[in-house]
Write a structure and sequence with these properties.
Radius of gyration: 30 Å
Largest sheet: 6 strands, mixed
Structural class: alpha/beta
Distance between the termini: 49 Å
Strand order of the largest sheet: 5-6-7-3-8-9
Length: 670
């Protein structure tokens, strides 16, 4: 489909990569990996045709379509969400106009026996079949499904895009790309502006419905769930692994060990040759052998060892005063703007706990953090414990850095003791190695400033960490360094994040935000997902918005809270629990049996729809192969059959969505 042959890129005579060669095949799911600055985004731009290489060739199959999502783009604000998303189907609208004109001409003409009339009929039939094949009759349903999958509500469809943040507008651009169904999707950090639910929806879409995909992402769980091939850029060269990311890491480590052994053996051989030359250089009887060794030395090609990451770097927070037993206590905390954000928030965070705030965007995670920080007013009681010293990281923290000092000096000013000897290593671990440490802060990008603010926070003496989306601008090695530092942290940590891999093994309690409520779940992030019995956190919104749902657990109140309202809140919690218990006891054996029967029936219906979708997709793929041949392209009956299969697939997908929703409702009722 796409062939990259001996590609090279140089900037100011410095190579980015050399003689890169690989092929992108249909249905490939490729993760493009490497250290920041290795050239991943540049490679995507070259494949997309937006940048020219210094040398080499990119060969693209004729009529291939490529969709490219950059990290940053300029977005228009002149349309509504729906109107902007509909631009993905501009080609279908143009085709519809052509069909309408031909239809009018057919109705107007009466020369039914003429050659021109028959040619018009044939052209109309061919165009109409193509129109049906491209989904011209049902694209609105697919458009709505895609927007909702990426987190938009139906009420958002008619809102101007100017009302949305940059992150939400990036989602619109992503939706447009997915709807266009290009032969190759190039995605540069697509998860940066998505919550967990939307990320998991995107995973499913890319795995099941997209054509070829090549993506750059620092979300380890995301690329493991989506990709089946890993292309690494290291030492200016390409290494192609036909495996998922986790398997690639093992193979890469094995290769590095082999490289190191080969490098050491080569260095030993070079040392022996040099020793021989020095020893016998001035002995006439050995002159031929010396010359032979010199030529041998000149022919040796140095073995390169891949860059070794710095994830093993150990960071430890400086010592701080011990905080009280309960750094954060919330009692009936509520916040509302034009609408209710959350109410009746009751939670107690103990000293030393690491907790996660999760939920869809806009459900109040960052708002509660701002309440804790005292940045905004709220209703209810919120107590910050004795001796609590807060270290707070949010995206706007980066704007508070002094732009007139260098990166190194920014960290040197807060580093204390022996850690000052490791400043260069720490900066390298967070992608400020070499000359980058001497840059002035004012010339850094937003992402670079965020990383610098994170490093500074790691070196300050605090006993309560509050991190709001800390991993957005970190590569995998940097995330590993940060994760280990938080694990070793003696204090308390509140982490707002959509990165499942980062949270896994780090937090021991999850607070779920949604529907104006905050619910506590004991255990790690995957314990939480398993407990909810869901595969996608998109279901959270439905379960939390259904008032009084038996699956919604009552908030757990701490018996150690020394508040005067403790008795009241405990009685309320017991009352809620008793009501739930009473409601469950009303279910007779017969009712439970009937419910299980309905549940099995719904599961079979979903499974049958999935099997039908798989069969239709296989038939469509086989037909696409035929249509790609000259004979197939001229066979109008194949286009008609293709259109019928696509219509059946769309109807079956709608049926699957309906049956899946019925199944989830039955599960939630249990």
């Amino acid at each position: 489909m796409i062939s990259i042959d001996k590609l090279g890129v140089e900037f100011s005579a410095t190579p980015l990569f050399l003689d890169a060669s690989f092929v992108v095949n249909p249905k490939d799911r490729i993760a493009l990996v490497g250290k920041n600055g290795a050239g991943k985004s540049t490679m995507l731009k070259i494949i997309a045709g937006m940048q020219e290489p210094t040398y080499g060739q990119v060969s693209r199959q004729k009529d291939i379509t490529i969709g490219y999502l950059p990290q940053v783009m300029v977005l228009a604000d002149s349309r509504t969400v729906m109107e902007e998303a509909e631009t993905a189907f501009a080609h279908i609208s143009e085709m519809q106009e052509r069909l309408d004109k031909m239809n009018e001409e057919i109705a107007r003409r009466t020369d039914y026996e003429s050659e021109s009339y028959m040619a018009l009929i044939e052209k109309f039939t061919h165009e109409n079949d193509r129109f049906t094949m491209m989904g011209g009759t049902n694209y609105h349903a697919e458009l709505e499904r895609t927007l909702q999958g990426l987190g938009f509500q139906r009420s958002d469809f008619d809102r101007p895009t100017s009302e949305f943040s940059g992150g939400w507008r990036m989602r619109i651009e992503l939706a447009k790309l997915l709807l266009q169904k290009p032969d190759l999707l190039l995605l540069d950090e697509p998860t940066n502006h998505l919550d967990i639910g939307s990320i998991q929806w995107l995973e499913q879409f890319l795995s099941q419905r997209a054509n070829a995909v090549m993506l750059v992402s620092h979300d380890r769980a995301f690329i493991n769930n989506v990709t089946n091939r890993t292309i690494e850029i290291t030492c200016h060269r390409i290494n192609d692994y036909k495996v998922k990311y986790d398997e690639y890491v093992k193979l890469r480590d094995e290769r590095r060990e082999q490289q190191l052994r080969a490098y050491e053996n080569q260095q030993k051989e070079i040392a022996e040759i040099k020793q021989f030359i020095e020893t016998f250089r001035y002995k006439p009887t050995k002159s031929n052998q010396v010359q032979s060794r010199i030529k041998m030395l000149e022919k040796i090609v140095p073995i390169e060892v891949d860059e070794v990451d710095t994830s093993s770097l150990h960071l430890k927070f400086p010592p701080c005063l011990r905080s009280g037993d309960y750094p954060i206590i919330c009692e009936d905390v509520a916040k509302s703007y034009a609408k209710n954000v959350f109410s009746d928030v009751n939670l107690t965070i103990k000293r030393g706990e690491k907790v996660a705030f999760v939920g869809n965007n806009g459900e109040g995670k960052s708002t509660l953090v701002k309440c804790i920080m005292g940045e905004i007013p709220f209703d209810g009681n919120l107590k910050v414990g004795h001796n609590v010293q807060i270290g707070y990281f949010a995206q706007n923290q980066a704007q508070l850095l002094d732009g007139n000092v260098t990166v190194f000096d920014t960290i040197d000013r807060v580093a204390k003791g022996d850690i000052r000897l490791k400043i260069r290593d720490i900066l390298g671990a967070f992608m400020f190695g070499g000359e980058a440490s001497d840059k002035y802060v004012k010339v850094l990008s937003g992402g670079e400033r965020s990383r610098l603010a994170m490093i500074r926070l790691l070196l300050e003496p605090v006993n309560l960490l509050i991190l709001d989306e800390p991993t957005n601008h970190l590569d995998m090695q940097s995330k590993d360094v940060l994760k280990q530092a938080i694990k070793d942290f003696d204090g308390t940590a509140i982490i707002v994040s959509h990165d499942r891999d980062f949270l896994d093994g780090l937090v021991d309690k999850v607070y779920e935000f949604g529907g104006g409520k905050v619910r506590e779940h004991i255990g790690g992030i995957y314990d939480f997902l398993q407990k909810k019995q869901i595969e996608s956190l998109n279901d959270l919104g439905r379960t939390m918005n259904s008032a009084g749902s038996p699956s919604a657990e009552p908030n757990k109140k701490s018996a150690n809270t020394a508040s005067s309202n403790e008795g009241t809140t405990m009685r309320e919690a017991m009352k809620d629990a008793n009501l739930t218990s009473k409601a469950q006891s009303l279910l007779s054996y017969a009712e439970l049996k009937e419910r299980n029967k309905l549940l099995k029936k719904a599961e079979k219906a979903v499974e049958a729809a999935e099997q039908k979708i798989e069969k239709l997709e296989q038939e469509i793929a086989a037909l696409e192969t035929k249509l790609a041949t000259p004979e197939g392209a001229s066979d109008t009956s194949l286009f008609t059959k293709y259109g019928e299969l696509k219509a059946q697939l769309a109807a079956t997908e709608d049926e699957w969505a309906e049956k899946s929703e019925e199944l989830e409702q039955l599960k939630n009722e249990g």
